[in-house]
Amino acid sequence: MNCIEAKLRPLVVTLAVVLAVAPSAFAHAHPKTMVPAPDSTGPAPSKISITFSEAVEPKFSSIKLTNVAGKSVDSEVSAPVPGDPTTITLAVPSLPAGTYVVHWVNVSVDGHHLQGSYKFTVR
Questions:
Q1: DSSP secondary structure string for all residues of 58-120
Q2: What is the value of pTM for the model shown?
Q3: What is the pLDDT of residues 16-51, one digit of tens each?
């Protein structure tokens, strides 16, 4: 083994370890499909559904619905979809015309926590 190979070997090994570990370090359950869609306008939905990029812990993941003033408009508790660990839903009451905000929180099965919100409008 020449001098250059001896000096590069630790660098190559370190790079290989970083590349192998990096995907799991950045693993989070990001929203993949949201119904109704963010910034959409349409008829009042009967439920809100969010499908994440990976499985979420139902006990620590939720959806809440508020009006734009921040007042809660849902009376139900969100729940996972049976047989689908990536999707949670929230049944919503009949919504009058207006803009609403969906607030979501999730904890993926590997323990990573994310939260966010988006708006939609009922015509």
A1: GGG-EEEEEETTS-B---S--EEETTEEEEEEEE--PPPSEEEEEEEEEEBTTS-EEEEEEEE
A2: 0.79
A3: 555 454 444 457 999 999 999 999 999 999 999 999
CATH number for 28-122: choose from 4.10.410.60, 3.40.50.2000, 2.60.120.200, 2.60.40.1220.
2.60.40.1220
Contact status, residue 105 vs residue 52, Cβ threshold 8 Å: no
- The residues pairing with 119 across neighbouring beta strands, listed in sequence order, are 101
DSSP letter, residue 56: B
* Boundaries of every domain in the chain: 28-122
Predicted local distance difference test score (pLDDT) of residue 14? 59
> What tokens does 18 get?
């970083």
Residues 70-89, mean pLDDT to the nearest whole number:
96
